């Protein structure tokens, strides 16, 4: 067995305890073999004893499951800071869509590489991505060493029937072609952009084919009242009821946002087992509203966290998302005890892995070896009364020392090993600058 030992740190265990433990990883299988205990007689600790082929020094750090960014558009890093301070609809129509119309596959790969670099640096090991030229995004994921669930974002509004049908077909073909890529680290989903930007007949056709192929569905749902009201006006039913009518509400499906949900919709999500990806920073920045996170969790809905694209965040740091989710969740519930620290940590780890149907999210024997080591010795993390509190409220992505995915060390001592960070940043900055020049022409 080719082994990696993460040694000398404290470990956030899957039952919520924090223990001083070593974590032994089988690099070939990409799994955690053992997490030793304070009790040296423990059977698990025996297998951790002895030498490993490689060690990672976690002294003074906290070993956590790799974070999961369950909704983003990773290549939008090229549009970071390009257009801010506008409501969703004019922001999309006046700024984002015209810029996206100029994007080439090379641009998308450059933006995706920048995004995966940023995610490795901030301890994220898995993400879901809805965008275009997904084969190029997959190439970036493969090189970087992360896990992802990828899909082509299907939009049919403003298209004739032929173009609309071709976009649905592309969504299905991309999902079939990329599933299992990167040694199985890449999985896919059918990703209609939303229930208002894809026509009903195309939704029905695409989802029926996705079901047949066993591919989950991911879409934006109930993000703003502009996404809810037209459906209620036209159909006389709420969007989640509509989603159920068109068979888009399955146990493997996951919807982004879920801001404007009523009680009946929360019940439907809970009954169907469909997950919600909460994107608090994007919801605040676009003034979309406050998702009922506490109510969703109390109803038994799986809630994950997502950054959304870097143009509406403006970073891909899931630590920020944990803090924002806790803060906004309290405000939304008008209750300071709502959405506590442990809840947002769970949403960013096990909840994210469950929503995406990907391995990871837990540190325990048999789980995928997807983890990060967070330094706890910085001034803003001193003293350490409660490491879980620090993860939710005080730590930042830049506190991550090491990142491991599928048993491979992607970042050691803040140096990313799988990508040339300087070259990635230069390439992305040049692509973004050329892109803006083309848009302005
Ligand atoms: Zn989005």
Strand-residue proportion: 15-25%
Rg, Cα atoms, Å: 21 Å
The description of the largest β-sheet is:
9 strands, mixed
| CATH-scheme architecture of the largest domain | Alpha-Beta Barrel
Indicate the mean pLDDT: 95
> How far apart are the termini?
58 Å
Low-confidence stretches: 38-46
Query: Remind me, CATH topology of the largest domain?
Result: TIM Barrel
What class, by secondary structure content?
Answer: alpha/beta
Topology:
Blueprint: E1 3-12, E2 18-26, E3 31-35, H1 43-48, E4 54-57, E5 61-65, E6 67-72, H2 88-101, H3 105-121, E7 124-131, H4 134-144, E8 147-154, H5 161-178, E9 186-188, E10 191-192, H6 200-213, E11 218-221, H7 225-235, H8 239-245, E12 254-257, H9 263-272, E13 275-278, H10 280-285, H11 293-299, E14 303-305, H12 318-333, H13 341-348, H14 350-356, E15 371-375, H15 387-393, E16 400-405, E17 408-412, E18 415-416, H16 421-440
Parallel strand pairs: 1-4, 1-5, 6-7, 7-8, 8-9, 8-10, 11-12, 12-13, 13-14
Antiparallel strand pairs: 1-2, 2-3, 5-15, 15-16, 16-17, 17-18
Bound molecules: zinc ion (ZN).
Residues 71, 73, 220, 256, 308-309 line the site of zinc ion.
């Amino acid at each position: 067995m080719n082994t990696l030992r993460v040694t000398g740190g404290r470990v956030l265990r899957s039952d919520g305890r924090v223990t001083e433990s070593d974590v032994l990883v089988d690099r070939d299988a990409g799994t955690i073999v053992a997490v030793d205990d304070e009790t040296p007689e423990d059977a698990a600790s025996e297998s951790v004893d002895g030498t490993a082929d490689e060690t990672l020094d976690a002294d003074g750090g906290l070993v956590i499951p790799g974070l999961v960014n369950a909704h983003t558009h990773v290549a939008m890093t090229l549009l970071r800071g390009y257009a801010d301070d506008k409501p969703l609809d004019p922001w999309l129509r006046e700024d984002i869509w015209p810029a996206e119309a100029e994007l080439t596959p090379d641009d998308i790969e450059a933006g995706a590489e920048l995004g995966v670099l940023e995610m490795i640096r901030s301890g994220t090991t898995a993400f879901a991505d809805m965008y275009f030229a997904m084969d190029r995004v997959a190439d970036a994921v493969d090189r970087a060493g992360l896990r992802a669930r990828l899909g082509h974002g299907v939009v049919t509004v403003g298209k004739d029937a032929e173009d609309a049908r071709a976009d649905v077909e592309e969504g299905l073909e991309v999902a079939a072609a990329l599933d299992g890529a990167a040694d199985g680290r890449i999985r896919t989903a059918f990703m209609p952009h939303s229930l208002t930007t894809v026509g009903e007949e195309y939704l029905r056709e695409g989802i029926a084919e996705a079901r047949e192929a066993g591919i989950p569905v991911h879409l934006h749902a109930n993000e703003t009242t502009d996404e809810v009201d037209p459906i209620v006006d036209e159909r006389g039913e709420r969007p989640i009821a509509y989603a159920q009518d068109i068979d888009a509400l399955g146990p493997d499906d996951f919807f982004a946002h879920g801001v404007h949900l009523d009680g009946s919709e929360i019940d439907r999500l809970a009954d169907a087992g469909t997950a919600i990806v909460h994107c608090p920073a994007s919801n605040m920045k676009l003034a979309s509203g406050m998702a009922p996170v506490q109510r969703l969790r109390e109803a038994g809905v799986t809630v994950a966290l997502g950054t959304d694209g870097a143009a509406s965040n403006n970073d891909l740091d899931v630590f920020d998302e944990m803090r924002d989710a806790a803060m906004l969740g309290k405000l939304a519930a008008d209750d300071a005890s709502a959405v506590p620290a442990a809840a947002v940590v769970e949403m960013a780890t096990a909840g994210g892995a469950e929503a995406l149907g990907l391995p990871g999210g837990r540190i325990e024997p048999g789980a995928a070896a997807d983890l990060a080591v967070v330094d706890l010795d910085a001034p803003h993390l001193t003293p350490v009364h409660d490491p879980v509190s620090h993860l939710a409220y005080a730590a930042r992505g830049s506190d991550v020392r090491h990142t491991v995915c599928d048993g491979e060390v992607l970042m050691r001592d803040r140096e990313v090993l799988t990508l040339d960070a300087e070259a990635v940043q230069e390439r992305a900055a040049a692509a973004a600058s050329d892109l803006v020049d083309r848009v302005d022409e």
